[in-house]
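BUG-182 | component: ligand-complex export | severity: low

The export step for iron/sulfur cluster jobs runs without errors, but we want the raw record kept on the ticket for reference. Input record follows.
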Amino acid sequence: MNLEELCEIASICTKCPLHESRTKLVFGEGPENAKIMLIGEAPGKNEDETGRPFIGMAGKLLSEILHHADLDRSQIYITSIVKCRPDGNRKPKKPEYCTCIDLYLSKQIELIDPDIIGLLGNSAAYALIGKKNIKQTHGKTYELKGRKYMALFHPAAALYSRALLPQLKEDMVTLKKLLNPD
Ligand code: SF4
């Protein structure tokens, strides 16, 4: 199965309650052979309306952070731990993200096979590597089941607290240095 086929299956998924609040599935976007995957918490309002991840203010800031690290968004595969928007922008519940990771995200990671996976914010870091305190874990790398992960602040957090932005930019530069040489 390829990413397109997996996305088709996900687009009619009803395996967790989040399908009830979905307008459009936000499966993820980016090259199938991306060396970097970035994983966030969940689609928001703009993402739910368009079906695209990380648009709006947080997405704009993410592009700026990537640019600072001499990276371009077009090089990166971007997705979330759940593909459907939780109502009222609440955090996804454990059974919801566990189901979605199991059915879709784990297969996306397997198919893309990135060098490094950036986990944006506490929810993604906890769901994927069991790390809770992003203030302590950001910028560190973790190896789990043969995969390399780094936790970073979520761009939306840096929108609310601009003091986080320099650290987020620095962590993205560190993440880029972890890419395997060509
Ligand atoms: S969030 Fe994931 S598991 Fe839940 S309905 Fe959407 S695609 Fe299915």
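Assignee comment: Attached the raw record above. Strands lie at 36-40, 76-80, 116-120, 141-144, 147-152.
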